[in-house]
Structures are given as structure tokens and as C-alpha cells.
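User: Sequence in, structure out. Go.
Assistant: Echoing your sequence, followed by the C-alpha cells.
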Amino acid sequence: MKDLADEGKPLHPSGMRNLLVCPWSVVSRHLGATEEDHGAAGDTGSALHVAAAELHRGRRIPECTAKMVAERSRYPLADVVDATGMFLQYAADERNASADVVLVEKPIAFSIAPAPEDPTGERIYVVGTLDQVRRVGNRLELWDVKSTKKDCATMLWQYSLQAAAYCIGASALLGEYVHPGGCVFTRQYAKGRNAHWPFTWSFVDIEDMLLPVRHAVAAIRSGRLWHMPNDNCCYCPKRTPDVCFPALKEYRRSLPLCASS
């Protein structure tokens, strides 16, 4: 798939981790064989993000929740009551309410150099929508609001690759280094726990973090890809390996022998 991550089929930061774990799932989406399915949890998070974005655009809390309800068609499976509860707790935290948010829900686009072995020699294009860039003291930081019920430490690391990409895109957009900030895990508020979890890596680590992405794209562009059953299978529209393995074998048969060998 030589056109993966070109300008017509760019990568999304949220798909980078899966590109390393199971590139076939990413290629399947680019081929149009599957559709993204976030389910109720994802839709609830989307609703929360709408309200939080409005807060950082200077809207009053009732206006934020009204906007979230008004746009419900965008996230039909959302538990709006749950999202509202998390948002109110988020807004009550002074660290959020008084945050100097420079960018919020901002589309970004950028590219990185290909790996040396990439047969196309073409840059890797990335597009997405970042959550927030905050000015903290004398520097900019990337932050994201998360409504997950999963272990915060695990999710913080799983999100790191995505966040690294957004740091690059935001830095290119603003012309200033955007450092890794962290995640605000909104379900921690109800537990009386700290919701702000900072990343423990720095901007200088990003080059090493994105290096495996460059190599994975090069492998796919060369016709080499694989399917690996993993913890993300339950979120993939195909769901089970018994569907993915035959589909992958069929795709390999369609490739030139020199690419699929």
C-alpha cells in the first residue's frame, strides 16, 4: 500500500499505536473495509469534549451544557447525563477553569520524514484534531481530557504516542515548542482523586517515539504488514482474528510477489 500516509491517505495520531501493534487494522480502514466505531464510551467522551471546549472559548457553564445537548446528533450513543456530571466537576477545578488555553479542538496537519528504507521516499502526512494547548508559566503544553474508566497510568502511556504527534503538529502550527503536558482524567473527580496526570517524557524524546512509526509505514509501503491479536481487537469493527487473518491473506495474494514476499 504505497499511498499509506501520503497527502490523500494521511495517518491520524490516534491510529499510530495500532499501526505498531496491528498495522492490518490501520490498512483495512484506509482501504475502506471497516468503519470506526467508538460506541457509547467514545460518544460520551465526545460530548464531554464539546462542553469543555466551549468553556475554554469563554462560554458560561449553562451555555456549555446546552451546546453539548444541541449537538447530540454527533454522538447519538452518548450518556449525556454522565458527560454533564463529569463536565461540571471539570469546570469546578480551578486548574481548568482558569487555564490559559491557546488552542482548543484545533485541526492540525503536518508531515515527518520517511524512514531510510521507505521505497517511496515520500514524507509521512498526519492530520488530526488536538484537544488543548495550554500556556503554563513560560511554556506551552499539550493536554487532553479523558473520560475513560480504565486505569489512568495505563491510559497515560497508551496515549503518549498520539500526544507526541500532536506536540509536533501544534509546534509547527504555533511556531513555538509545545511540550507534553498530560491528561485530565475526569472520572477521578468523583473518586476524590487527582485528575491531572502529567506525562513523564519530554519534547526531546519525541523523535525516538516516532521512529517506530516511520519504520512501520516503510514496511507497509513495501507490502509487508501483519495482524496481531491484541487488547484493541474488541474496539475494531472486525472484532475477531478469525475474520482478520483470512482478510489479510486475501490482501497479500493481491499484492505483487516482490512486495508480499
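User: And one key feature?
Assistant: The mean pLDDT is 91.
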